[in-house]
Amino acid sequence: MQEALRRIPSKTSSYVIDSVRTPGEVNALHAANEALLIGVDADPAVRFARAKAREASTGRDENALSFDEFVAREALENTDNPHGQQLRTTLGMADLIIINNGTQSELRARLERLFAFMPSTDARKLEWGEYFISIAKLVSKRGSCIKRQVGAVIVKERHLLSAGYNGTPRGAPNCDVGGCARCNDHSIPSGTRLEECTCVHAEVNAIAQAARNGVSIRDADIYVTNFPCLSCAKLLANVPIKRVFYSDRYAHTDDAVLSLFRTVGVETEFQPSRW
Predict the structure, then answer these.
(1) Active-site residue (options: 106, 203, 267, 269)
(2) What pTM was estimated for this model as a whole?
(3) Is 77 a catalytic residue?
(4) How far apart are CA 5 and CA 73, in angstroms?
(5) Is residue 275 part of a domain?
């Protein structure tokens, strides 16, 4: 497996490695952070019928096994022997399993549907930064602000402590039903009269959620879909938040935010998302 990984010429293209049969091979793929492992299984009777068909097509069916003999031979490939094949254990390590009791065309169609709904054609396992910024993006979809949906998650030692999205305060009508007059006035240029906006920012809601539940976020990191405004930056500095990871910036990002973060020692880092 290590040799197969070494021979892959490009990290920007996708490749298929089949016949993965041992946990060691799975571990090598995951250690390389390269693989989405799809297990393909079928009922024993279906596997037996396919084996018989292959033997018949090659003229090697004179000494064909009975169904019971076929099942017994398969069992030899499912032992706990670390030096042998461990198909069942390996299958259990798959990221997802497809039951392939149909035709080859049906399997191909199922795989095409699967890849069509995947958020990225990049099958690599998510890095931790990608993982948390992806969660922040998902959280943002709960935001009710009609101008922009923003999400934030607060993380410490790879544990998610709190999450927040932007919208009007608890108990107030949502922005998307007229709760914020400023956002609903389309004559106001983007980035102006922000002091009139009644929406609570995602970072503030994430901090409030932690406070409400008695969760300490001191020296934690925050992953936010959009770079913080100055008001949020001051709050983050006072927590204190240790690092700010963001995937997008506003066109009107205030240099004062960067200056403040540098002064108080809050690190900032662009965190790209795979989708």
Answers:
(1) 203
(2) 0.57
(3) no
(4) 30
(5) no
